[in-house]
Amino acid sequence: MYDNYFVNGDTGVHSRMGAQMLVQNNVFRSIATPILTTGDSTTDGYVNQSGNDLGTGKNDITRTGTFTKPPYSVTLDPTASVIALVTAGAGTGHLA
Prior knowledge:
Elements: E1 5-14, E2 20-24, E3 27-36, E4 46-50, H1 82-89
Parallel strand pairs: 1-3, 2-4
C-alpha cells in the first residue's frame, strides 16, 4: 500500500492471518490506529512500513515481515504531496 490518504476511523491498514504488507508514504488523519497487525483473527499479520505520516495515531505492529520490495517497479510520491494528489483525483467527477 502506498500513496494513500486515510481520513476518520479506528484503523487504516490491518494485516492479519499471516499476511505480509509493505505500507509506504501514506497519510493518516483522525485514524486512531493507522497500521495494525493484531486482532480480529487468530493469527497476526506482518507489516514493514516507512515514510508514513501517522498524524496523531499510534501503530500497533506486533510482527515485522520480510516483504520489503514489490516484484514490480514502483515510484513513490513524496508523503508531503499525498493529500493534494489524492484529493485532486478523488470524489465525484474523477473517474479513471
